[in-house]
Amino acid sequence: MNQGQKITSLHLDVLKEIGNIGAAHAATALSDLLNKKIDMRVPKVEMVSFNDMMEFAGGAEKAVVGIFLRIEGDAEGSMFFILPIEQANQFIRRLICDDSFSLRDSQISEIGLSAMQEMGNILSGSYLSALSDFTGLKIYPTVPGLSVDMFGAIISIGLIEISQVSDHVIVINTSIFEDGMEDSNELKGHFFLLPDPDSFETIFKALGVS
């Protein structure tokens, strides 16, 4: 039986609850960073095949910003946060107060990249902290790496190991929006959580839903 068949709606409900707690923590940290009221929500958590995962970002050749890190400790794996380039530009412009900033420029400003890296630190750290609190497991992220590339090229890093034993990944849909901002301007990104094979069982056993 593969990992996709073992994941139930109860597992996904628990992961969504953890995601919302992590999102609340991240929203507080982003609000402090931007000096604006930021809200986050996790509208949906689902288990998808690798092929379906590619469609979440608009296809393997879609240009995106990807933040990648390894999860270490009692449960190991890989985590990605993927955001379309234009939405990432929108976030960074507000953060550094520079409407001309673009990740498509051949010479990308260091301050803009640092801002995106900090966003990755906040989001991944908040989510993994919530997962650690829920499970009682010691889980911590490596320093996130940042890439601007085609989605397929970025995500392939984390698929090499897990694809040998599974063909599914956990997707945590994430919406980030400024208080009072129109819904059409919200940032919509995706966390892709790829626990190493043994870590699926470790995480859900710790949650009491194995």
Can you put this structure into words, describing what you see?
By secondary structure, the chain is an alpha+beta fold. It contains seven helices and seven strands; from the N terminus they run ααβαββααββαββα. It has helices at residues 3-6, 9-34, 50-56, 85-96, 110-135, 151-162, 197-207, and strands at residues 38-49, 63-73, 77-84, 139-141, 145-150, 168-178, 187-195. Strands 1, 2, 3, 4, 5, 6 and 7 form a seven-stranded antiparallel beta sheet that branches. A hairpin with a 3-residue loop joins strand 2 (63-73) and strand 3 (77-84). The chain starts with a helix and ends with a helix. Residues 1-5 have low confidence and may be disordered.
Tally the helices. Answer: 7
Mean pLDDT: 81
Gap between N and C termini, in Å? Answer: 14 Å
**Helicity level:** 40-55%
Structural class label: alpha+beta
Computed over alpha carbons, the radius of gyration is 17 Å
Find the count of extended strands (DSSP E, 2+ residues): 7
Topology as a string of helices (H) and strands (E): HHEHEEHHEEHEEH
Q: Can you tell me the overall shape?
A: globular
Main beta sheet: 7 strands, antiparallel
Approximate strand percentage: 25-35%
Identify low-pLDDT runs. 1-5
Q: Keywords, please?
A:
210 residues, alpha+beta, disordered N terminus
Summarize the structure.
With about 210 residues, the chain is α+β, with helices and mostly antiparallel strands.
